[in-house]
């Protein structure tokens, strides 16, 4: 079914067997791919782009000059997971995020995992993402990461790996929701032929999660707002989208102020007390009196209110230590230490260049490894060794030697592929998956699926939107609707 085989890695295709036949459970989507006229698919692809542009879904790429707004490429062939696969992933995701929250509460309080030697103290206490300002600060329900985006990759029928944990301000959920809406408009008959689990209740789940972590002294119905850095942030569309869907105010730092150790919002009817803030502003810019003194994005004094327990912030301040790429290596230890369980989801083998033996191995095997900056994100600052030339590897080696503790390395996995509609027809493209896990004081919530990102270039392993990657709609088939009675998927 694929028309392109330039990928140097032998990859697991999620829909098509090596002999060209569909995998079990994928027969209907495979039949649609074969029977749908290519001319019609090209029209639908063009219509999808028109819809996204009309809706205003764009992505700002900093540092490129000119108009930074661009459409994220969208592929009309859905990525499909069976209900049994999703059930396994959902259990593994809940387990992982529970352990990450327990780790954050621990390192900002008793530090038991550090005292036990299960995670190196140096790696936490000397990490730039660890904020001493949060030591001893109690947060509602001991929940630090309310919204987590866990990046998964697949290498085989039952082989899923966590690539990284996003516990600060994970983005992309608006694309997940709009991908579904566009696919339903363009291919209603295809939906009618599949039992696809709905994702539309995510804003409701998010709102309920935020409500559940309101401060203990909150009177009446908590007031929730979304705090955005503003129009020029790369994820501004998502901020406006989620605020609108939840029916709450979208605010910027200048719209909020602190008085009598509470946070208030300026409104046309006078000040209104704010109880829960879903913040999309980095820690460093949140409060100029505590962190970056030149910040005009945050709210002066908000950290005092936060420490007093008079406002809740989601995600909590200081949560970035949990998505540090070196801390990632120890998440299986966290699961064992806090939960007494074996990890359901695997980590990718990781080498930390701060360790002498690891660093020597990395430098000797740069042509085989993917090397990343510990504090990097968005696909920037990384080296994909097998696809780099000798000059690029040599230059990167000098960077590693200069600051070894700032780099980790992992084997180059053979990421799974999905058929993707390109100019020449169907072709395999590598994909990953970012499910969104919502952790409230009452329960953990997941909508079935997540954001599938796809490397649009043949053979590329980089799926990040900032690096030219696109997205697909993610379908979970034959869902267990009885779980919540309305098609949702609570973990």
UniProtKB/TrEMBL annotation:
Positions of the Circularly permuted ATP-grasp type domain: 78-455
Gene3D superfamilies: 3.30.1490.270, 3.40.50.11290
The name this protein goes by in its record: Circularly permuted ATP-grasp type 2 domain-containing protein
